[in-house]
């Protein structure tokens, strides 16, 4: 059988495991696939954000004892956000590699690596789902913990802002929906000020999407869109109406809906640094004061050589720097 001593091989060091988990094929959530969030590693466990009017601006980290960033007269407030520690733990017991024949050291190593890779893959997928959930929270202005109720970050309350909400009144057959869309677009533009955007996308709960596409004054447009697009793609992924791409967002993990039933969020696209995700370094000695990576992995032998303790972690903080630019839409 393969010896647990093989885990002392450099292939299972912090550097090698971290490289392996970062190189695994990414299974994106919709937000990740859209590329809305810019990503950057930081060497600290927190980022500072200042409020200028209704806009939030990232404050770059500086060297201790060095020159600080000049403070302008219109600076209102400063808030520090800690990165959110997301640890994943797993055990690989001796029995799991019991049947590995040590025909040669390379064969033994490759087989044990495959066991580790499968476990890292499962841990990576859990981290991906959590980061997606937190990014949806950043769009909505409130990042929740995995239980769906504990608030980790509330941009609106911390900066004294209020969320912009627009009722689309889709339950009334005579509602001029296109006019409602134009009013919602103006809310986005007012919040962005002089910032330009390249497009608008509405991420809809299934209930909102159904209410929109079956509305008396929208259905004919949806049917025409279907006739042109159905043969090429699932129309739920993008339906153009009123200059907005409407799509059904299907995000649910552990019974928690990422977008509440009957809601949608109107999101501007193409605005530089509107949505950001910063990754802090892992809480390992080797990673201290280094630029953070999206994922880390490390292993340690269990007591009495009964197996290996495997850990993966990510330390992200996702923010929307203009929270009022994302408008919450409701059916009723």
Can you lay out the helices and strands and say which pair or pack?
Blueprint: H1 14-23, H2 30-34, E1 38-41, E2 46-52, E3 55-59, E4 77-82, E5 86-93, H3 105-140, E6 142-144, E7 151-154, H4 155-159, E8 165-167, H5 177-192, E9 199-204, H6 206-213, H7 219-229, E10 239-241, E11 244-248, E12 252-253, E13 256-257, E14 263-269, E15 275-279, E16 296-301, E17 307-314, E18 316-320, E19 327-330
Parallel strand pairs: 1-15, 8-19, 9-11
Antiparallel strand pairs: 2-3, 2-4, 5-17, 6-7, 9-14, 10-11, 12-13, 14-19, 15-18, 16-17
Please give a structural write-up.
By secondary structure, the protein is α+β, with helices and mostly antiparallel strands. 27% of the residues lie in helices and 28% in strands. The chain contains 7 helices and 19 strands. It has helices at 14-23, 30-34, 105-140, 155-159, 177-192, 206-213, 219-229; strands at residues 38-41, 46-52, 55-59, 77-82, 86-93, 142-144, 151-154, 165-167, 199-204, 239-241, 244-248, 252-253, 256-257, 263-269, 275-279, 296-301, 307-314, 316-320, 327-330. The strands form 6 sheets. The protein has a 6-stranded mixed beta sheet. A hairpin with a 5-residue loop joins strand 16 and strand 17 (307-314). It is globular. Mean pLDDT is 84; it is low at 62-75.
């Amino acid at each position: 059988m393969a010896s647990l001593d093989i885990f002392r091989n450099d292939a299972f060091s912090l550097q090698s495991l971290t490289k392996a988990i970062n190189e695994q094929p990414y299974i994106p959530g919709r937000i990740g696939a859209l590329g809305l969030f810019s990503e950057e590693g930081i060497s600290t466990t927190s980022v500072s954000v200042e409020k200028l009017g209704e806009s939030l601006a990232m404050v770059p980290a500086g060297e201790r004892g060095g020159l600080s960033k000049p403070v302008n007269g219109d600076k209102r407030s400063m808030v520090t956000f800690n990165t959110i520690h997301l640890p994943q733990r797993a055990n690989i017991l001796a029995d799991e590699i019991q049947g590995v024949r040590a025909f040669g050291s390379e064969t033994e190593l490759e087989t044990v690596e495959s066991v580790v890779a499968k476990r890292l893959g499962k841990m990576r997928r859990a981290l991906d789902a959590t980061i997606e959930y937190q990014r949806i929270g950043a769009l909505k202005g409130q990042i929740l913990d995995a239980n769906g109720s504990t608030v980790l970050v509330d941009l609106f309350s911390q900066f004294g802002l209020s969320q912009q909400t627009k009722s689309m009144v889709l339950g009334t057959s005579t509602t001029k929906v296109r006019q409602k869309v134009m009013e919602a677009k103006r809310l986005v533009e007012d919040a962005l000020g002089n910032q330009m955007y390249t497009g608008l996308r509405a991420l809809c709960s299934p209930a909102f999407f159904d209410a929109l596409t079956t509305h008396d004054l929208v259905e004919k447009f949806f049917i025409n869109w279907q006739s042109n697009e159905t043969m090429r793609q699932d129309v739920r992924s993008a339906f153009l109406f009123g200059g907005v791409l409407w799509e059904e967002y299907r995000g649910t993990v552990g019974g928690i809906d990422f977008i509440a039933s009957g809601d949608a969020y109107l999101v501007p696209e193409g605005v530089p640094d509107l949505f950001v995700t910063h990754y802090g370094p892992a809480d390992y000695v080797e990673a201290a004061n280094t630029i953070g990576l999206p994922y880390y992995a490390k292993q340690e032998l269990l007591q009495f050589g009964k197996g290996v303790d495997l850990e993966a972690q990510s330390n992200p903080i996702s923010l929307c720097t203009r929270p009022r630019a994302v408008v919450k839409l409701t059916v009723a």
